Amino acid sequence: MVGVIGSFCSLVSASEDVLDDRVNAEIASLNNAFIITQHANNYVLPYTVMDEPNQEPYLPFGENFLQKEEAKYQISMKAPIYNRRATELEGLYFAFTAKSWWQVYSSETSRPFRETNYEPELFYSWYPEKRYWDSEWLMLRLGLNHQSNGESSSWSRSWNRVFVSAMAENSYGFGSLRLWYRIPEDKKETPDAPKGDDNPDIEHYLGHFELRLGTKFKEAKMTMMMRNNLRTENNRGYMELNFAYPINKRFDLLFQYVNGYGESLIDYNHDIERFGIGFQLADY
Length: 284
Known about the structure:
Elements: H1 2-10, H2 20-29, E1 37-38, E2 43-50, E3 69-83, E4 91-102, E5 113-126, E6 130-132, E7 135-148, E8 158-170, E9 173-182, H3 203-206, E10 209-217, E11 220-228, E12 237-246, E13 251-261, E14 271-281
Antiparallel strand pairs: 1-3, 2-3, 2-14, 3-4, 4-5, 5-7, 6-7, 7-8, 8-9, 9-10, 10-11, 11-12, 12-13, 13-14
């Protein structure tokens, strides 16, 4: 993992502050009731291919129910509930992200949506704009997060978290760190009980933090997201690399690579490697 970080950072060259434009754009749209701001990236990957699909949850439908090729997309937005001042971003926000995996190339099984993860969030954001260690600290957040796949019985996956995050940038790019504490749930009385914890060991795979790094190299935009459980034994992690190049003012061509545990909730304990190509709404 250290080698990956080093390789990523070696690609970085001095650039303009990559987040200032987004902050200014959000301030400009703050008082427009008809604008909903992007939260996480919004993208569509019409074609992705993974190494070994997690067939286990779908065994009732056949041993090789899933194909390696599928589509993937993410829709994410946020809106202010309360702002301290009409010209500042500091305030209370609601955000919602939905991410889906679609077996669109599986004509023999009626092209099902394999999995959809829903993630509503409520958080308060501060924008201190302070400089430390040659970096500008742009954002601090404290909030509540729920993530679920909306399924029932043995397919159900969900967890609730309290999180804190911080984001900073310098002339090379930006970095953000999110830490979380999982809100405990009662143990299930039986494996099929509707109440209780559907995935009691999820922290063994997804850990307690998420690190993001991003930069611009000329017109290209590169981001990397990492998680790790920080365990000496049974160490497990996840990495997502995104390379985007602008097509026009609205859309970027997007290449995505993921490797590790927890790309989706149904696969939180399954190691997956995936390549994908598609488009994303332009973002800083």
